[in-house]
Design a protein that fits this description.
about 140 residues; Serine Threonine Protein Phosphatase 5, Tetratricopeptide repeat; mainly alpha
């Protein structure tokens, strides 16, 4: 399913090479499924060049960088995403995940608590908060 969706987004980008929204969908999907991370980061960098103040694109880029293992840049990017969109549970959860992976347990817990307050039904988030810093 991911391969078919990725192919469809790539086709959209051949027809509309500056479609930042398609870039964001493609890059986030690839990163979230741990697929073609170099491509994910490349298209997400391009999306943020086209729309540098889009917090959702910054979140996607930060998430892809995290999946790639670039924790410092991922953290910097997610912190900027939170500045732009401070009340989004997914962005806050991503920030918490990166903070936890960076050894910043207290900060991770704070981000996860904010995310949980915004979206109490998010699968796995409550376990992260109750686990006090453990990732699933």
């Amino acid at each position: 399913m991911v391969d078919e969706a990725a192919a469809a987004f790539r086709k959209v980008l051949t027809l509309a090479p500056d479609d930042a929204e398609a870039m964001n969908y493609l890059g986030y999907m690839l990163a979230d499924h741990d697929r073609d991370l170099d491509e994910a980061v490349r298209v997400l960098h391009r999306a943020t060049e086209l729309d540098p103040d889009n917090g959702y694109y910054l979140d996607s880029l930060g998430w892809a960088l995290f999946k790639q293992g670039d924790l410092p840049t991922a953290l910097q990017t997610l912190e900027k995403a939170v500045q732009v969109v401070p009340a989004d549970a997914v962005i806050l959860e991503h920030l918490g995940d990166i903070l936890a992976a960076s050894g910043e347990s207290e900060e991770a817990l704070a981000a996860w608590k904010k995310a949980l307050a915004l979206s109490p039904e998010t699968p796995g988030l409550r376990r992260k908060v109750e686990g006090k810093g453990s990732l699933e």
